[in-house]
Amino acid sequence: MSESTRLAAWRLGWIFGALLIVETSVRAGWISSFFLAAPTRAVIVLWQQLVHGNALVLTGITLFEIAACLAIATVFGILAGFFLWRYKLIGTSYETLLAALFSSPVILAYPIFLVTFGRTSAAVIALSSIFGLIPIVINTKSAFQNVNPILLQVGASMNLTRKQLFRHILIPAVAPTIFSGFRLALTYILKSVLGLEYVAQVGGVGMWLSDAAFKFEVEEVYAGLFGTITLSILFLYLINRCERWFRR
Amino acid sequence: MATARHDTSPFAAIVQTPLGVQALTLLGLVVVWECIGRTGLLFPDLFPSITEILQSLWTYLTTPVLIPHIKASLYEVGGAIALAALFGVPLGILWGSKQSWLEIVEPLILYAAVVPKIVIFPVFILFLGIDVHSKLAVGAIAAFFPVSLLTIAGMREVKKVYVDVARTIGATPMQIAKNVYLPAIAGQVFTGIRIGLGAAVTGALLAETKIAKAGLGFMIVEYYGQFRIADMYALLLFIFILAAIANWAMKSLFGALSPVSRRSGDAGMYF
Predict the structure, then answer these.
(1) CATH number of the domain residue B257 falls in
(2) What is the value of ipTM here, to two decimals?
(3) Which positions 107-146 of A are in contact with B (Cβ < 8 Å)?
(4) Residues 6+ away with beta carbon under 8 Å from A146
(5) What range defines the domain where residue B43 resides?
(6) Which residue of A19, A20, B133, B136 shows the fewest CB atoms closer than 10 Å?
(7) Rounded CA gap, A162 and A173, in Å?
(8) What is the distance in angstroms between the Cα of A101 and the nearest Cα belonging to chain B?
């Protein structure tokens, strides 16, 4: 057995061990099923919702929101990052402002977005895009800033045109750092979209969780939670795989 | 011969610094906002004038109207960060002390850290009710991840040779923990607690906006429900200022306490 398989087995053992304890506690009545659903029941309810309910549609809505945020954040983030790199003074000044904005609890301003865009997915997309935009802007600026000048000098000595320099030297040099920003952005967008859907009760999976909690459908709450956690983990796994593939 | 003309007036010199650009930007934003607010050009209900917002902010600062809500939020955030430090630091030390444990646990924590903590709120409501404790729990879970992950990062940076030297001179495990590990990881732990504070504020106050009886987050939604937009903006501004002051205070305090303040470049993704 390889080392990575052994570690994965250990991790799965821990997870299933914990779930087994919860399952036994609920089935034996040590913990009231009013508070905690047996994991098997939560999985069954999630499956029923996927097959007969509208969980798939809601997942689709959440995925659409995430994709829209990512598209907005990527396009505007890279453009803004490039602009901030080109104009040094503005770049240095705005980077601090962006960092300050990023570290403040901006998500609490979601009612403003609900007033502006109504109780729709547009409000979730507008606010969550901001969370994705900032890491992409900062990483793009830093990527261009940290390009080794020797690479550019080599390009210039080979009489490359500005376009060729940009395409063959700058883009390959900045891509890994921009991708790191993209990865961070996706993580923030995911958290923001799911969180806002739950809090504002709009959109997809988060809204389902909120509805279930409102109706005190305990098994559905845990099913929704299980679905949300699975979606988040799946996303991170895919991002990690992409990054590994991208860096090869 | 053409000579470049440089504007060397004091105003131009100030404007050509990052601070000057930042001040000008903020000033520009305020002026534009005020114009929109006064003329009602754009979303008249959404952009109250700055003076109206500042009046509301002044009311918050000079009257006891927010005191019960500040108390509730402070209790939640204070309790959350205390719980996160109480569990996050020892667990981080434990997990970080053995490579084999770290290899098993760290990916699990990293994956769990990405899950938005607010979605666990319904579970806390079931167990703890809609009082302050469910919000405290959300804040604690949110803060736990940066605290434990940065503690692990700190443990990873402890040089093995220090521990070996301590063992050679006969130090007990407790002495090694106190005299080797703690000073070495202090910088990372403090950074974790500071980042955790931000996560706790966001987690607890966001949960308050969902369901609560008191708290600053609860008041944001109250004002939104009553369409008191100027009051809502003023309260948001108040919260941002409080969060910035708390962050600055912690940074200064920990900077003074920590022998070497270290920062983790990738820590941002966990809160």
Answers:
(1) 1.10.3720.10
(2) 0.84
(3) 107-112, 114-116, 135
(4) A177
(5) 10-47
(6) A20
(7) 15
(8) 9
